Amino acid sequence: MRVIQKFFIASMFMWAVPIAILHAFNHNLLPGTSNLSPYSVTLVSGFLAVISVNVVIAFYIYLAMREPADKHEPDPRFLAEAKASINQTSGEAQQSSQPSKKEQ
Question: Which of 35, 44, 77, 104 has the greatest number of CB atoms lying within 10 Å of its CB?
Answer without folding.
Answer: 44
